[in-house]
Amino acid sequence: MLFEPKKILKQYWGFDSFRSSQLEIVTSVLEGNDTLALLPTGGGKSICFQVPALCLEGICIVVTPLIALMKDQVENLKSRGIKALAIHSGLSKRQIDIALDNAAYGDFKFMYVSPERLKTPLFQERLKKMNVNLIAIDEAHCISQWGYDFRPSYIEIIEFRKLLPNIPVLALTATATPKVVQDIQQKLGFPKELVIKKSFYRENLRYFVYNDERKIDLMLSIIKKQKGSGIIYVRSRNKTVEFANILKNNGITSDYYHAGLEMDVREKKQHLWMKGDFKVICTTNAFGMGIDKPDVRFVINVDLPESLEAYFQEAGRGGRDGKKSFAVLLINEADRDNLIKRTEQRFPPIDVIKRVYGLICNEFRLAIGSGELETFRIDWDKLRSKSDFTLKEIVNSAKFIERAGYWQLTENGRIKSTVFILMNQRDLYDVQVRYPKYDVVIKFLLRNYGGMFDAPVKILEHEVAKKLKMSYKDVLKILNELHKLEVIEYERAEGEVAITFCNQELI
Questions:
Q1: Which terminus in the chain has less CB density within 10 A, N or C?
Q2: Helices 436-448 and 472-484 sit at what angle, rounded to 10 degrees?
């Protein structure tokens, strides 16, 4: 060990002492132990791997799921005079090549990568030239199939560890049930269980639950009373747009954010919110992981999250500066029923799962249990048209089967088609009058799908055809003609989901 932890903490962060549990975690890592650290959101997880890595010779590999998180932490380290870099899909091949050289020869202390990057041949070849002192796994709950954000690529980290057999791992998360805690250690190949955790109680956070039908009125009242920044969590992409507009119409600066936006657009919105250009960001749960904005005074959930763990994670993004902040959950009578319905949709009955398995095997003319390592492209909408299942039943069953290990899905495309209205309401009405054959479809879209004037909205062509008693081909024809006329921007769902079969039979 080159330096003492407390000296490093004082030199780069200006603190005289560690927070509760931080020193215990740092010490465990420096002793070479595989360690799982459970710290609440805002509890200083980054310090726990940054300090020991700076105490030792070599570079720390930090595995993290989000590019935004990588960039934020790299900039933070650079501002403290610490050499760090990030390798992500936003870089060119030449930039990645240079970054890997810097990691091997440039005296850098931290290299941030996604879990997918670890298995690439180029990365593994350059790894041989690196002096790695620690592997830090951030947002480690992603490794667990029992976690709320299961990410299959995390499971392969245990194979990556074989390339660095004597290097300790520090796994960090703010949210983990006992089952997830056990699963993380098993999936990462810990030789023995070692968990260090801090109380998740944060005295500066105040939790409120309002059971009231007047959600919007309550939301506006809360926001207008609070200074600083805030986050509004909703369940759908359409709602992010809807609520951002509601806030703007009430004099509150805001913007929306969801995973359907292009990466550069998401990064720009996040950057503007982080630096305070607008007060509130309205978002799905796609936003927030790893975000370290200190002055978040309120987090409002307008819809029920998937689980208590997910809610705690989202609510914990408030008050990272230690000052009083509010976590507000707005519910009404319909929310409980909707949550149960969503849960049932995510976990279809076993007979539905088996029938979907048979449907997909039949689509590719494979005998049950055959097709080992064969890869095909799935068109979800085409499968939907050949069955009596809903799209959600097919997709959720396929994902359930993937988690069970019978096949692997790689989703690179859109599962649903999208429509974005390019005209204002007055010009659109003129089109409806001039082209009666388009009127019925336009009216249906406006009545059944909200937010099309603000952002692309997912649609199901088969549902449109069924409700309007039109043929599927006629609906596609009209949507494509409207697209050519620049009335709408129509992007049809792509068959860009790859499925790779394993040699198992679902019984």
A1: C
A2: 100
- What are the structural domain ranges in the chain? 5-197, 205-337, 347-507
Name the residue among 313, 329, 388, 38 with its Cα closest to residue 148.
Answer: 313
Question: Are domains 5-197 and 205-337 of this chain identical in fold?
Answer: yes
146: alpha, beta or left? (left if phi > 0; alpha if psi -120 to 50): alpha
Distance CA 204, CA 294 (A): 13
CATH no., domain 5-197: 3.40.50.300
Q: Strand 457-459's sheet: what is its strand order? A: 457-459, 417-421, 488-491
Report how far residue 39's alpha carbon sits from residue 303's, in angstroms, rounded to the nearest whole number.
26
Strand order in the sheet with 35-38: 84-86, 110-113, 59-63, 132-137, 169-173, 35-38, 195-197
Q: How far is CA 353 from CA 321, 384, 396, 403, 425, in A?
A: 46, 14, 9, 12, 43
Closest of 409, 386, 404, 408 to residue 506, by C-alpha: 404
Single out the residue of 336, 265, 273, 270 nearest to residue 303, CA to CA. 336
Alpha-carbon gap, residue 319 to 308, rounded angstroms = 19
| pLDDT mean across residues, the chain | 86
Q: What torsion, rounded to 10 degrees, do the Cα atoms 324, 302, 173, 157 define?
A: -160
Q: pLDDT digits over 220-268, tens only?
A: 999 999 989 999 999 888 899 999 999 999 999 999 998 777 777 888 8
Strand 417-421 versus strand 457-459 pairing type: antiparallel
Q: Are 188 and 171 in contact (CB under 8 A)?
A: yes
Q: Which helix (H) or strand (E) holds 112?
A: strand 110-113
Distance CA 256, CA 242 (A): 9
Q: Give the model's pLDDT for residue 412.
A: 47
Query: Does residue 260 contact residue 240 with C-beta atoms inside 8 Å?
Result: no
Encode pLDDT of 282-301 as tens digits.
998 878 665 678 899 999 99
